[in-house]
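ok trying again, last paste got cut off:
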Amino acid sequence: MAKVLVLYKTPKSAEAFDKHYADVHIPLAKKIPGLKAYDISRGAVAAPGGSSNLHLVATLTFDTMDALKAGMGSAEGKAAAADLSNFADGGVDLYFFDNQNA
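nice, full thing came through this time. structure:
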């Protein structure tokens, strides 16, 4: 499996972020071709030392890295990426990786 890990940093307004994320961004992202699963964190995102600067963590799962790249490069993937500037004003980091069972 291949995954996209999305780390959303603390926004200026958590309420505005959450509303846009639920009402606009999730429906956009769920249209990405090849997407097999879409998981988001619930509640506070903590670090070993306590609180973190993260507001939300999302994980998108694809069958292969090629499927991930094709999905993210599609019109739907580009639309979801373009939407980030509409709500992720605290910053966002994206990571792509292949997954294996250990």
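cool. The mean pLDDT is 96. The chain is about 35% helix and 35% strand.
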